[in-house]
Amino acid sequence: MQSIKRIAVLTSGGDAPGMNAAIRAVTRTGISNGIEVFGVIWGYEGLINNDFKKLESQDVSNIIQTGGTILKTARSKEFRTKEGRAKAFENIKANKIDGLVVIGGDGTFAGATILSKEFDFPVVGIPGTIDNDIFGTDYTIGYDTALNTVMHAVDKIKDSASAHNRVFFIEVMGNEAGFIALRSGIATGSEAILIPEMSGQIAKLKELIGNRWKQKKSSIIMVAEGEREGNIYDIAKKIQEDFKEMDIRVTILGHIQRGGSPSAYDRVSASRMGVAAVEALLDNQRSIMVGLVNNDITHIPLNKTLKEHKSINNGLLKIVDILV
User: Fold this and answer.
1) Is the Cα dihedral 278, 279, 280, 281 positive or negative?
2) Is the whole-model pTM more than 0.85?
3) 272, 277, 279, 280 alpha-carbon torsion, rounded to 10°
4) Residue 131 catalytic?
5) Is 145 exposed, middle or buried (0-12, 13-18, 19+ CB in 10 A)?
6) How far apart are CA 105 and CA 286, in angstroms?
7) Looking at the domain assignment, is residue 318 inside a domain?
8) Distance (Å, rounded) from C-alpha 266 to C-alpha 67?
9) Does residue 100 register a pLDDT over 50?
């Protein structure tokens, strides 16, 4: 069994609140086990550019409450090439790194999987994305914070909607997955929730508005950014054509959902998964993701997180049908 003396950690893809908590946990867990820990700046691009920085315990002090990532993040076109990955691995060997922890979403895990396979190198993934669309874990780092950000924003918009008898179509992120829209829609008491996983929603929405418009003229319609029946402006236009008397507004919350101080849940979850990632490397695990299922730490092969599709909770869909 290979002895782990040096590990590296990187963040890749879209940033998510709680990534810094995971970096902190990886760093301090490594140090507590007598391992040298290095941060890779700018994700996979940093591997190619040999941008390694040794992390000491004090380097990750006072970051657990901050959003973003102290290691920066980027998407690397060069890493998608065999030559780019070879260059990255040469730098890994030159820095005497024995294992790598990657924090990110499905694109990050795709890169980690092929790197591990091509060079037979230990890589452990931590799911960090606000979209919560990674198979094999109930929650990803950043999802809970994003939900709360959306909830607080929509609560404010509802005040304006009520004051003017307006209907607001609000677009939230999700990368063609409806997890943010579904839960934040329930949390804010939205009158309708449109997600990519469901079909025929425009017709259903028109029916709903036709039945309820006279009773309630201010409404919140939550729309996931990857909605299959068109973008939010197209959807709002279709509704306006049939209900010309409605005062419709469109709001896209955008990147506000990625920022801000992580919630307590994201901080604790990121800390747990950061510790588990280092322990997995020490246990000679490779090409796996650590996740949370039923609030317990689990291991799942990285390639399975890419092959399998995470489904929407049918229980939540039932709640929507009852409460909207």
Assistant:
1) positive
2) yes
3) 130
4) yes
5) buried
6) 17
7) no
8) 11
9) yes
| DSSP symbol at 128 | B
Whole domain around residue 283: which residue ranges? 6-142+262-307
Task: State whether 12 and 132 are in the same domain.
Answer: yes
Can you tell me whether residue 28 is helix, strand or coil?
helix
Based on DSSP, count helices (H) and strands (E) in the chain, helices before strands. Answer: 11, 11
Q: 232-242 and 201-212 helices cross at what angle (nearest 10)? A: 40
DSSP helix/strand/coil, 229: coil
Helix boundaries (H) for 220-313? 232-242, 264-282, 302-307
Annotated catalytic residue, options 106, 131, 138, 144: 131
> Can you tell me the distance from the alpha carbon of 98 to that of 5, in angstroms, rounded to the nearest whole number?
7
Cα-trace Rg, the chain: 22
CA distance 28 to 61: 10
- E strands in the chain: 6-11, 36-40, 52-55, 99-104, 123-127, 166-172, 192-194, 219-224, 247-252, 288-293, 296-301
Q: Which residues are 219's β-sheet partners?
A: 167
Q: Are 63 and 23 in contact (CB under 8 A)?
A: yes
The SS3 of residue 299 is strand
pLDDT tens column, 163-184: 998 999 999 999 889 999 999 9
**Domain at 201, CATH number:** 3.40.50.460
